[in-house]
Sequence to fold (257 residues):
Amino acid sequence: MTHTLPADLVSYLLVGTSAFLVVHWVRRAILKPAGPSTSDPNANGITSFDRFQRLFHWGTLVALLVTIASGLALYYPAVLEPAAMAVGFPIHTNFQLLVDIHVASVVAFSLLIAAHIAWDVFKVKGSRLVIPRVSDLRQLATRAESFVRGGEIVKSEKYDVFMKSFHILLTISSIVLAVTGITLYFFAPWWFVPQLSHQTFEPWWKPTIMHDFFGFALIVLLVAHMYFALLNVNRPLLRAMIFGNWQERRRRNNHVG
Ligand code: HEM
Fold:
């Protein structure tokens, strides 16, 4: 009997998310291609990210990829063992090392988040951009309607209602993962006890199951985030996250040329 999140629940979560993304893609990319509306600030080149924001974004991605890879190996050791053996890294004899890699990448992630808050909240003073407002509910209704009927996507600010929701869910997941992760690491490290005792070793409020659930929630959020980032309609945002203000730079270059 395992004390982790049941694997069939994880499968439902992953299959459900994939199905939603496929439906979204069929609706938006095939049935009714959506173009950015004229009121979309991204279309006018307003969206830009400074050097720190871009460094934070891509640094966070690297830290999270290491966290996710080591986390998956700890969650699915038996399933991933053949693949791990093939690359000369047997999981069962490297459990402690995997835990150390997981913790080190999480520490790097936490430092990045601390720097992110210091920069974006206190220096850039951008909190207004990510805090949801009542008008976001209206925007949600409009966007849902445009999804059903097809048609243009109307956005009003740098971050729309979905981006703000994504940001909040990321924050909630990170906080729950931090609380449960610290508890497991310091007070209930099941990887030090024989498997048969895992159940009895687990605290009553089941931090391992919560950690697994929010870990997979984070994976789902990141996969969905990558899907939306790659959509044509969000190309200016992706370019801005790579180059800063890509359209501004192109305008300047054309002018000089
Ligand atoms: C309490 C926690 C957090 C606060 C107060 C916060 C604050 C902010 C603010 C104010 C912005 C808008 C900056 C702008 O565009 O001018 C922002 C954007 C962003 N946040 Fe957060 N954030 C938090 C947690 C997180 C977490 C956990 C992640 C990632 C896992 C994250 C990733 C991002 C990204 C990628 C952006 C867009 C790029 C950027 O501005 O750096 N944030 N955040």
